Amino acid sequence: MSLSRQQAWDLLTRYNQEPFHLRHAITMEHVMGWYARELGHGDREEFWSIVGLLHDLDFERWPEEHCVRSQQLMREAGLDEELIHATASHGWGITVDVEPVHEMEKVLFASDELSGLIGAAALMRPSKSVADMELKSLKKKFKDKKFAAGCSRDIIRKGADLLGWPLDQLLERTLHAMQAEEGAIEAAVAALQA
User: Which DSSP letter does residue 90 get?
Assistant: First the structure.
């Protein structure tokens, strides 16, 4: 079954209601769409975006079965195996043995934790925005293990390695993605509260 954005959103909100989780899903939807365009996969931007939107489908209700339960939920909904594999692959080596193979899966694996770190760093800024964040301040937050301790630096480094990118390139590109998409992310989040 090919999935529209609205169908993906309806599935996501069937299992997720927490504003934090919905914001993260929207953030990753936009980050993944930006990466699709940036890396020359603009023809698949909608698919990359939906993968970002649905990647944590099971996390709010079943965190201990993360990336396991989501596969079951998606199969029950009749979703495509490519989508199921892509979303599950960001749990590789943590909860599942589904390895990120395609570039899109590697980007998801690499940028998921990192988007959380960047978002947390933005909240510490007077502007509460990524717009004025520089790479050097992000690198400083990345090196501070106590800051946003729940965001695994090991997974971020492993993701950069999977992509064959230096860590700084991953940090810079994901920061650029969040800067470019911040307006759209904030508009989508605001629409939830309307």
Answer: G
